[in-house]
Amino acid sequence: MPYVKDYKEFDDKHFYGGDDLGAVIVDGKTQFRTWSPRAYGVYLKIYNDGVGNNLVETLPMERHRTGVWFVEILRNLDGYFYTFTYEFYEQKEETIDIYAKACGVNGERGAIVDFSTTNPDGWDKVKNPQCKTPCDAVIYETHVRDFTIDESSGVTFENRGKFLGFTQSGTTCKGVKTGIDHLVELGVTHVQLLPVEDYATVDESKPHKAQYNWGYDPKNYNCLEGSYSTDAEDPKKRIKEFKKLVMALHKKGIGVIMDVVYNHTYFSDKSAFHKSFPFYYHRTKDWKFTNGSGCGCETASERKMVRKYIADSLKFWVTEYKIDGFRFDLMALHDIETVNYLRDELDKINPQLLMYGEGWTGGESPLASDKLAYKWNSHSFGRVGLFNDNIRDGVKGGTFNAYDRGFVSGNMNAVGTICRALTGCVPHYQLKGHHEECCWAFEPTQSINYCEAHDNNTVWDKLCISVKDESEETRIKMDKLAAGIVILSQGVPFIHCGQDFLRTKPKILPDGEAPNDWNIYDENSYNAPDYTNSIKWERKAQYKDVFDYYKKLIALRKSSPLFRLSTKGEVESCHKFHKQQDNNLILYSLTGFDRCYVVMINPYNCEKTFEIPWDLWNSGRYFVRLDAEGKRNTTPIENREFTAPPLSLTVLKKASV
Ligand code: CA
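Above: the input record for the complex with calcium ion. Below: its predicted structure, written as tokens.
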């Protein structure tokens, strides 16, 4: 039963632009507001606790214009819990407020919180780290639990797998740094956390039960997930502990990016959205919820109060928690107008806030594809970043076929894609007419370059499947070459936590399933146990040379603006390819800012000789800035013909005169 026939007309009439929805404490009073124009009645219930039979009182709310319901209580209700009950012709349902900013255990009831009481000591003094252009960022994706749940993290037992796990410095494993010190050592600028907003499927009331989820099952968009708190029963605890996480990272100069999942709700007719205004917040077809997300009911960002809801939510996270950016899950489910509006709203607070997302969906949306933030519409929202699946699949092979190989693992057909990716997927005069499908970025700032994320096989596991007959030594070279291409490409590099020490996700096979080449690795570990997902820090000690190489690539990237060109004009003027006899050997130069680098990529598993072009060779002397081991050699090279080792990336630098 639809409640609204024409949403556009309805929105024009009923839109509410106030910033006071939810529970607000003002001058010792507590005010409640909720928007639901078609409700016959709305009731506020106050409780003593987040769950259980402890109702304090029920109060009817009063309908104001544009459909906002209001009630004021003449005391500060900090510490109490509340719900709204919405009455419609067909249904009367009690639910948590969609604007609840805190909640009790398992997100069943909103918690009334005076946020001024939640700041850790020194909170006001800590500033967001600077990030002048997205190309200056080096993003590291991790999951709160994965990061420190394993004993090898060295984090104290109570803090393992929690927000507080990020606050503990000085931890080591077999002599290597772990936890937050590891992040500093690697040199990343931002940590992207898998969803920390409240999600549905981990029972927060059972902290010692073996449970796991990535968190793409959103329940309350403005509340924190309770299972990452040391006490999910206490609404303020998770707030204070998450602020401690943000503060600890900011003190080390590292920004915090939240992974936000506004594209769908985990529950359908039992979601708080549907209970507070049936069908308004979701897209439908033939009166059924549509599933463009592939994992639940998709939301309707094109409706004004949904758009406003997302904007309000982002602003809340930025202002209350000092968040530095957002990664939008399945961003293509949001309409382009909304995505641009959200960028505008973030710009008003701080233009340095990062915003990027997945330019694809998980299923088919009823909204026209030219209205949605798909990657192929990238130029319509050029200020918002997009995950670059071209470089991802070009480097290691197609994501959805475990056996498929990429440029680093023997597939030379990928060379064109890799050349495009190296230039940040912006137009380049030397690549005209070649692989135009990989020329989609409005500016290099739009391209989020990666070859591994939480989804799908890790690069290491994919190499173990697709080139399993190669030696471990060869596969390590392939992994390093993949990292070299991703980290030195124009755009924004993105690394999956543990990728820098060959992360693997061993799978526990169901009873009766025989192991084969590929099923021993988990390619979709969203609810797999710690055995599969947790970071095993011993691996960092074991593959320290790989880690050191990643670290040196990041340091090189940070050392010169030539590796972080932020406009397509700069890419055109600084980045030049120099043809080799063998088209699969890539040699390019980066010239500008009084510096010059030559990068040589040898994708063959044997030595290859590159010819440095005469014009470069005659213009100065070159030394090896970064060899395949990550080392530097300041003695100038003597031969214009440079022999590169198998599967390697070499960076030369022109000696300054
Ligand atoms: Ca939860």
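Notes for the reader.
The radius of gyration is 26 Å.
The pocket of calcium ion is lined by residues 106-107, 198-199, 202, 204, 219, 225-226 (CB under 6 Å).
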